[in-house]
Fold this sequence. Notes:
Layout: H1 3-26, H2 50-55, H3 72-76, H4 84-91, H5 96-99, H6 103-110, H7 130-137, H8 140-146, E1 153-154, E2 160-161, H9 170-174, H10 190-196
Antiparallel strand pairs: 1-2
Amino acid sequence: MSSRTRKLFVITLTLSLMVGILALIGCAPKIAESPSGGSAGGASATGDDTDDAQLNTPFAWSMSSDCSICHTTEASGTDETTHPQAAAHAAENIACVDCHTKQDVLTQAHAGVTLADKPATKVTTLTVDAQTCIDCHGTLEEVAALTVESQALKDDQGLVVNPHQRPAGERHIEVPSICTDCHNNHSETLARDAKKY
Length: 197
């Protein structure tokens, strides 16, 4: 092998090794980013506690906050195959705060919450005002008229009943039903959850 061929071979081999090493470095595991831009799991990649402090600083919640940063399960529930009622609301571009309107309850629930905290697993119906549902869907009587042919609910004798027509009675006057007694926009199985009530 000539001297020139050997030099060319060494250069090619060296370049191949450098490309291989750079490719391996590029594929090395990275520290995951948290929603706030810091590294997940606390300490930053640089070894300081800046990211840890950011994660543990109380979140400045407001009615204009992006709820999906923490409430990822509910945000992903707009998939029609898993949460049909949430998907219907998402199709109308209805934001979380269009239904979750009780700012005082929400403010209290988010007090002291940090990005490091595990988000609540269920959205509370206490933050939904009954009038919010009525404003879009109508009163219980109006909805009962629309669902008179519904076959979705049977009473304890197995008879089909209109799910929105409550029988007359003193107890039903004392304890009026509200939409969130049966309906949870984030439920995957509305019929089963409604029957629990």
